[in-house]
Amino acid sequence: MDATQHTGPATDLQDRIAVSKDYDMLQGLITVGTGISILLAAATRDFTWMAVGSCLSVAIGVTWYEKRYGKARSTRSRSAVTVLFSILVILAVVIASGFDQWRPGPLLWTPLVAGPLMLAGKWAGLRHTGLTMWHWISCVALTLCAFIPLFGYHPSFWFAMGTLALPLIVIGSVDHQRLVSALGKGTPDEQ
Q1: The pLDDT of residue 116
Q2: What crossing angle do the helices spanning 165-183 and 109-125 adopt, rounded to 10°?
Q3: What is the pLDDT of residue 6?
Q4: DSSP for 62-108?
Q5: In this structure, are residues 158 and 39 in contact, taking their beta carbons and an 8 Å threshold?
Q6: pTM for the whole structure
Q7: Any idea where the domains of the chain sit in the sequence?
Q8: Where are the transmembrane segments (predicted)?
Q9: Burial of 184 (C-beta count, 10 Å sphere; 0-12/13-18/19+)
Q10: What is the signed CA dihedral for 137, 141, 142, 144, rounded to 10 degrees?
């Protein structure tokens, strides 16, 4: 469901219900901040930006959404699946980036692993609102970056890490816009 395809009050209500069910996965400011952190880490070749920036993104993002819209509780099973999948994705990307750094080959492993996993995670997490074309474009473009070495350009490890940033920023922006469009301005003290 695209937040821009409203056809009336019933659809608006359906959008709000769907967004409320996927609230935890649509908190795009967290994703945008993480993308910016990865971009800064790649640009400066310093993992500190990624670690500190990602932690700050979560803290600031969660606080902003809770202040604006309140706290939503996921079911235990959804929370457990989200945490488990996140850990698996982080491990897979760390292993893939290790191959890119220490065993460069004909493909970039980081985008090859991260693109499909990012798409799968969003597909599973946005069961009620669905994926937008931007989710697909971003994840497919990220995956295609894996094949850049086949065209004679052999980017650095940091380039491989940097390819993660743009899709995170795009997807986070889209998700945030969908959430804000459906739920409005939030609590009265924020208006």
Answers
A1: 97
A2: 10
A3: 47
A4: HHHHHHHH---PPPHHHHHHHHHHHHHHHHHHHHHHHHHHHS--SS-
A5: no
A6: 0.85
A7: 9-183
A8: 23-41, 47-65, 77-96, 108-126, 133-151, 157-174
A9: exposed
A10: 140
What pLDDT is attached to residue 82? 81
Q: Which has the closest alpha carbon to 121: 145, 85, 90, 73?
A: 85
Helices (H), strands (E): how many in the chain?
A: 8, 0
Inter-CA distances, 139 with 2, 85, 93, 97, 111, Å:
18, 17, 14, 17, 9
pLDDT for residue 56: 95
pLDDT of residue 39: 93
Token pair belonging to 39:
């971009």
**Rounded mean pLDDT for each run of 10 residues along the chain, 191 residues in total:** 49 86 92 94 89 93 93 80 86 90 88 95 92 97 95 86 93 96 74 48
The pLDDT of residue 189 is 56
Q: Is the alpha carbon torsion for 166, 172, 173, 174 positive or negative?
A: positive
Neighbour count for residue 70 (Cβ, 10 Å): 11
Instruction: Enter the tokens of residue 41.
Output: 């880490």
Contact (Cβ atoms closer than 8 angstroms) between residue 54 and residue 34: yes
